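Might you be able to check the backbone structure tokens below? Thank you kindly.
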Amino acid sequence: MYIDAFVRYITNEKRYSKHTIRSYKSDLEQFVEFVYAEDIQFNPLTIDHHIIRKWIIHLMESGTSARSVNRKITTLKSFFRFLLREGHIDCLPTDKVVLPKMSKNLPYFLSKKSMDQLFDQISFTNDFEGVRDRSILLLFYCTGMRQSELTNLKIGDIDLNAGSLKVLGKRNKERLIPFGIELKEQIITYINIRETLNCDHNWLIVTNEGNPIYDRLVYTIVNKHLSLITTLEKKSPHILRHTFATQMLNNGADINAIKELLGHANLSATQIYTHTTFEKLKSIYKQAHPRA
């Protein structure tokens, strides 16, 4: 009952993305399963910090990363804040919970040389699938948008004359992203070939059958093509978002402008890319300086 009410709250009032809602619901279901496994009747009103601490220990001992544990506890914090807000509880059991420390992993990204190889040397077919796949990759690389933002794009969100597109980001916050001539020409080519499918909807990126594209297919397309140019273990759409931000910063873009383009709520989320560029500088220094 309480979990269903919470899911309705983050869906209708907080307007979280479908991906976030799925994650929150999955985390809560996992916590409930753990509570029952401990022979405790699940009642959010009587859950205390002791059982939450035991869950953290269980997760860590089962090999769950500190980052994933922190995310799951963030879900619990949101859930109990909701219960407090609704007057169901008087205090937050998560206040006494100490989170495991996370190592600060720098984001993976691809070099300009690799991206040039992808778009200038890799052969894409001239049929619908080839044009669509190149459009997906170029959209990610030229705009830095998230995967969910790409799958939610509609034809009406593209302004070819202004060279901009509108995306719906986290918390349903809209933002405009400019783009250049190469992406403009690619979108025109794609829309023209998309029309041959006679789609009866306005979603921009579609499957071979003309249906709105889905997350798994987008991931498969990106992973397949990035495998041709890099040996990085991670080859997800988010790598292209990291690449966009890192290369913008390396080429002199203001970090506040990058923050706006990425749709970050605060600057701290964007500043990780300054660490990435500094690590690159350190690497170059060690290779080039005779006393390094």
User: Anything to note?
Assistant: The chain is about 55% helix and 5% strand. The first helix runs from residue 2 to 13. The beta strands are 158-159, 164-168, 174-178. The chain has a mean pLDDT of 91.
